[in-house]
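haha ok so turns out i had the wrong file open the whole time. this is the CORRECT one, sorry everyone. sequence first:
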Amino acid sequence: MVVSMAPSTILSLSAAELPIWLVVAGAVVASIVLLVASVRRHVAKSTPPPPHLYTFPPSRRHVLSSFPVQFEKFSVADQADISPQVLQGRALTTTRKADLSVDNFYTPTGFSTQEIRSLVGHFPDYANLSGVPNPQPVPSSWDINKAIFRPFRPFRWNYTQNMALMKYNPDFWVELEQNYLPTMAARQKLLSEHPDRIFFQGPGADLACRELMEMLLQFLCRRYPSHFHLSNDNTLFHNLLLATVTDLTSTPPLKVVFQNVPEDYAIMLRNQEDGFYYLRAASVCSSVGWHIAQHKDQPMKKIHTHVPDADKMQFSLDRWFAKLPTDKPVMRASWSIEDWQAMFSSPGVGVFAGENEKNWSRSAFADRPGELTVKELKLRCDAQTLRRLPVSGAVVFNFKAIFTPLEELRDEPYVPALLHKVLIEGKENLINYKSERNVKNVALEALKQWAARQVEQGIVPADWEVSTLEQSPFYPGWEENWKKKQGIL
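then structure:
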């Protein structure tokens, strides 16, 4: 006989009055719940957190005492560093739009939301906040119509894949030169033609973009005071080179940067879930073989999958990102040899894209390699700076592509022999990344001749053992020649 009872009847019974099968079932369910909870606790304890989850850069909170207007009641106790546990547990989001009106959320550098509200948006003293000195104004004899880039020659021997970091010069965060006007026009044209492949900004990057814009405008006004200035209330930016006035209250900050600065920017923000840095905003016009949309919202590890031997550096690179202090920016320079001056060319777009991505070629002479001569070859150097913004804690890359006719290297002491050595004896997968085979062959022949001529002329000792130059990333005597070409006294 089957006995049925209404749910209300069951709930009113005591444990002794319940059917035995129901008591057993309840005990089994309770045991399963306890077992699952135990397993979860064990897994949580046995699974280590991501390696850099509680690794943060040095705090900059101590500088707030030097901002008496904003922080007149800032006590010694307020200067104390925020613990890694609080920085992680109360991390300001970077994956969605952050609500800065809610107090006591923190950036990686230890600034709270209430402190952010008093700083970013008001053009504070970023040199003080970051610990990086303001630039010196360009010399009075500097003329933008004669200005040229510094002659980067970042060749190293022995040549291995590493970050190759170099000392940062605060005067050269942004370099303007004689092609400023055509470069700005070309960048605007690229943006109109390929907007999604040139520019993007994620919802969590608002703070970093505003901070970057303010820092860059301050830099331009100090470094090039004859060409840029801000209104007294910091709401209008005057660019005398372009004859433009930008309303900073209505123009998105990263667009302000794009409209005035002829360099590329990539903004990496810390993800509070794993402690790694992800690309959350960028404006990049100088990519060849790739474009910025391919790397949107990706961590460093995925961004560098195409770079030879990048996996060998990944752990140290992630650790470096996690710890980078705001007062220790660095620079680096990568290089390649090209047979045309490619500003932006990637599969599916550009001069040599073809009808589809498979037909894309890096070389302008891919279908006629026999016509290539040394006169067409260009040394391309991508000069980069990496720095952490002091308030948002974002890590910002900025870079510019500098093209130099390869023939200019002919008379630069030691440079032809050094580059020849790298191209002919460097690790194959690294060198193949630097140039197409037909380009490399033409370059090698010319470099060999120039190196021999420098020995004959006594410029380079015959017994010189090829190695990285002491003046790297430049060469002996570069500064005098560079200033002379520009008429700088």
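Residues 166-486 form one domain.
again sry for the mixup
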